[in-house]
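Let us practice reading a record.
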Amino acid sequence: MTRKEWVHKISKIVEGSTVLTKEHSEILREIVIRNFRSNMGFVGYECVLVLDFEGIEDVTCSFVSNFLMLSVKMCKKNLCSYCIVKNANLEIEAAIDSVLKNNSISVLSTSFRGTIALGSCGKVLKPILDMILITKGKVDSKYISDKLGLTISLTNNRLNKLVSLGLIMKEPSVRLEGDRGGQKCLYQSIMMK
C-alpha cells in the first residue's frame, strides 16, 4: 500500500507563536479535519498525519490533550493509520508523555531520532509493540513470544493486528532448509523505515 503523508508545519499554522495553547489546538484541529475531508479520495493509500514542531519551544498540556485526542479519533475512524510528530524538543516530548500517562490514552509514544509516532494501539498490543521498538531492528514472532512468555499463536495474532493498524511492518524471512511450519516473517517498527 502506498503511503500518503499530510504534513502540517505547526509554526506556520500558529502565526509565529512559540508556546502552543488550547486555542492553537482548535485551529490545528480545523485545518487537519478540512485537509482530510478534501482528500478523502485517496483509496488504497496508507494515510499518515505528520505534525512538524520545528520552531515551537513549548506546549501546554491542554494543547497536547486536544491534539492527541484528535489523532486517536482519526486512527479509530480509519482516517489515518498513525500520526508522526517531528522535531519535538524535550519539553514537548515531556508534555506528550505526561498527557499520555495521566489520561491513559491508548497510543504509541516513542522517541526515536527526534520523532514520535502516535496511533491507536490497545493495552494488550502495547507490550509487543514496545518489544519491537526496544530491539531497534527486525524480529520474528518466536523471539517476541519467548521474551514475553506468550504462545506463538497469540503472538502472531497480535503482530498481525499491529500490522493492520499500520504501527509495524511485516516481511517474509528467508526460509532455511529443515524449517517446519508456515512462512516465517520478520517485524519491525514503522519508525525504522
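A brief commentary: Residues 68 and 118 are 8 Å apart (CA to CA).
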